[in-house]
Each structure stands twice: as C-alpha cells, then as structure tokens.
Amino acid sequence: MKHARIEPLRRIFIIGAALAVAVACGGGDSSAPATEPPASEPATTDVASTEAPATEAPMYAIEQVTAPEATNVDDLLALDRPIVIAHAGGDFDWPHSTMYAFTEAALGGADVLEMDVMLSSDGVLMVQHDNTVDRLTNDTGLVGSYTAAELQAMDNAYWFSGGVWSDKSLPEDAYVFRGVRTGDRDAPEGYTADDFAIPTFEQVARAFPDHVLDVEIKIPESETGEVLIDRAYAAAAELARLIEELDRVDSVIVVSFDDSVLTEFRSLIADVATSPGQTSLVNWYLAGAPLDPRDVVMQAPPVYEGIEVLTADTFARAHAEGYEVWVWMNDSSQETTEFYSEIVARGADGLLIARPTAVP
C-alpha cells in the first residue's frame, strides 16, 4: 500500500519522534502475587468477589458493571466506532488509578480501562503512574521503597479535587474524597474504603474480567534519577505471569516507552497484543520499518513541541498499514467534548482520555 505524502525531512523527524514519545500512554504528565498471595501482600477486600449483600442493602457498585460491547482485543478493534479508553480510570472525573475510578468508568460505558504498573518493594505489581506517591497520596517517597501493604494503606484520593490531578493549594473541603480510605469520611454509596486505595493489577484484572485492559509498564527511577531498567524487566515478567494465570491473554494490550521492556515482555508470553515502543515508532515513521506483529495500536498525542503531529495524513498512513491510533491528550485544555469530536473527525480510532463523562 502507498504511504501518505512524506513532508520535508526535518518535519518528518520531529513528527516521528513525537509519535515515538507518545507510547507513554497518557504521558501528559508515564510484580504481582500468585493466586494465593504471599504473607506480605495486604489483606484487602476484593470487591469483585464479594458476595451479594442482603436485599435491603445497596449493591456494591462494581456488581452493577455489565460486560462491554467487546470483551477481547480482536472484537474491540473490529468495532465500527471510536473506542473510549479511560485513562487511569478517568482521572479528571474520579481519583486517579482507584477502584472507585475504574468502576465509575465501567459503569459509564468505557470500552477499555487504562493503567500503569510498577513493582512494590516486595514484588507486587501495583497500579501506579508516578515514580513516587507524592502527588496523589497522603505520603511521600518512591513507590519501589514501599511494600504492597504500605502502599495500600495510603489514601490514593487524598489530593483529588476534580478536573486536575493534584492542586494542593485548595481549601480543605475541595478534596472531596480525602479520608475515605482512612475511615475519616464515609465512602460513597456502594463503595468501601478499599476502593480509594492503590490497587494491585491482579485486583483490577479480577474485578473487570470483561473489560480490555491497556497496561503500560512504567520505568522506575532511583532517588538520584537513575533508570532502574531491571525493575521494569521484573515488572514485565510479573505482568506476563499474571496475564497467563488470570486468563487475560486475549484481553490485554501492553505498552512501554522502552522497547527493551516490550522485548522482555514478549519473550515471556505469546499472543498478547502490544503497542510499539519509542525506537520502533521512530523507525516505522522515518524508514517504514515493520513493527512487531503483535503491535496493533499506536498511542500518541495530538501535539508535540508546538507541532500538530496527528494530522489526517498521519492517521491515513497508520490505517493503510493496518494499525489503529488511540489518542491521549497533551493537557487539560484538550479534555473537552469539542476537542474529542475534532480528533475523532481527523481519524482517531480511540480516545484515551481523563474525562470519559465528556465523550460526545
């Protein structure tokens, strides 16, 4: 198939690099126990497996989640409409990466639940975006310095005020879910304090068996900024193990900024869909190099360093080569119904967004 018109070399390089950087899903800022958890894993309530309460009591909200239109990657990509991917559960609408957010997104009709993962100090695969817990919780420090039990004791909605991740300058009553995790405030109807903790990947995967999961393996850093690539490899191994164990091979898409992490992951498990890493995307865009056969979706932002990278030509080229393009937003100004409609009109196949409630 013919490629779209190639622009002058400098512009090609900038756009290609931007598409490559975009692999960090929702990078607008970008490991688990066995079925019988080790003694070090926290004994948290698994709301997905909680028995139905008495008829006079309200149902757990998660029990009201119905299966989406597509429950595996193949069926998802075959849908003849834009896909809604809830970034971190929809982190402008609800507290980032909480069971509460994932449940609300699923109840609202999101097709895919997006999340980032990294290891706790005791090897549990946690759903966590940042290298530290500072921005979202009532604590500070590197994620990798805490055990899973310590991480899950934190209030993961401590700084949530709606609309942004963590504006720490607001009045106390602006943080509408602060204290739910610690029992200082009642949980919303149908939820518990555990729904405002930092979840494990296994908890999310078990709680939403019918939703496709878009999972980014994060690259942790030390306190001095040293890239801990071995920790990312270990997280890739744990993710591969859990996907196999939980029978999620056909309902997960895995991505990482670093191609070597994806190479490690692919070496451990077959037939799991992926998104290309940085080097692969650069080579594809600049030289037409083939991607890995398991790469089915490109994940990219609309603008990079002031240049519009997701033009109609970019979408057309990706589509001509058989790839879907999911778009994550550069900043809050793009998290609007109007912009969502605009980017879909250009050719986006999916909206990887922080505000699922604003989907047109």
Features:
360 residues; alpha/beta; TIM Barrel; 11 strands; 27% helix; globular
Polypeptide structure, described:
Helices cover 27% and strands 12% of the residues. By secondary structure, it is of the alpha/beta class. The protein has a single domain (9-34, 66-134, 198-358), classed as Alpha-Beta Barrel (TIM Barrel). The strands form two sheets. Strands 1, 2, 3, 4, 5, 6, 7, 10 and 11 form a nine-stranded mixed beta sheet that branches. α7 (259-268) links the parallel β5 and β6 (273-274). The longest helix has 17 residues, at 229-245. The protein is globular, with a radius of gyration of 20 Å.
Give the secondary structure arrangement, pairings included.
Blueprint: H1 9-21, H2 73-78, E1 83-86, H3 99-107, E2 112-119, E3 125-127, H4 148-152, H5 201-207, E4 212-217, H6 229-245, E5 252-255, H7 259-268, E6 273-274, H8 278-287, E7 297-300, E8 303-304, E9 307-308, H9 312-320, E10 324-328, H10 337-346, E11 350-353
Parallel strand pairs: 1-2, 1-11, 2-4, 4-5, 5-6, 7-10, 10-11
Antiparallel strand pairs: 2-3, 8-9
Helix pairs in contact: 1-8, 6-7
Indicate the percent of residues in helices.
25-40%
Q: Say which CATH homologous superfamily is assigned.
A: Phosphatidylinositol (PI) phosphodiesterase
* Oligomeric state, counting identical vs distinct chains: single chain
The tally of strands reads: 11
> CATH architecture, please?
Alpha-Beta Barrel
CATH class: Alpha Beta
Poorly predicted residue ranges: 1-55
Helix tally? 10
Strand content: 5-15%
**Could you say how many structural domains there are in total?**
1
SSE string = HHEHEEHHEHEHEHEEEHEHE
Characterize the biggest β-sheet. Answer: 9 strands, mixed
Average pLDDT metric: 86
Q: Give the termini distance in whole angstroms.
A: 33 Å
Helix/strand/pairing category:
alpha/beta
Instruction: Examine the coordinates and then state which fold CATH places here, giving the name of the CATH topology.
Output: TIM Barrel
Radius of gyration: 20 Å
Basic shape: globular
